[in-house]
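Archive record:
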Amino acid sequence: ISHMAWKSRLVGERFFFTPSWSDEPTPEGRWRIHYQDGAACSSGEHPSTRHSLIAIEEYLKPGMSVLDLGCGAGLLSLGAKLLGAGTIIGVDVETDSCHLTRQLAAVPVVQGMPDCLAPETFDLVAANISATVLVNFADDILGAVKPGGRLILAGFGIEEATLVKKVFALGALSERTEGEWSCIVLDLPLN
């Protein structure tokens, strides 16, 4: 994505994404979040990131524990923090992503795969990663969510969404699409 393509945009009801060089004023009632320069998928310019953040905004209640799986540049962690999440932990395989998330959101970050997750720890899990990783680690990801918790899955195309929904085998609470990208929100049963 060339720098010239990046423009300021409203995301959800509360966020204002803007390039770091922009001097546009932040609209009233919104939090300003700078795109992360050089972080393509987690820059905020990607539909998966925006739709995940909108879903977090819609479903997060203050005090909830949140896992940002595949935390990238930390935009979802920062969004959850601004919205009042209690505990937020980022997980990513990339050293740079772990560093970026710590720097931007100032939350604890674990470098590793989804199989490093403790069971039934989180009220809300946002996983903005590839369908392949989601499918291969579905049991670990599902296991990290508390009963009655919520799962936000993104980072894959509309065609792959069918497989993701089949593997996670939960009724979709909502699904957003933009272009070829999909974001699915699932509710875990209480028992």
Q: What stands out?
A: The beta strands are 9-11, 15-18, 31-34, 66-69, 88-92, 109-111, 122-128, 145-157, 172-178, 181-187. The chain is about 30% helix and 30% strand. The CA atoms of residues 79 and 85 lie 9 Å apart.
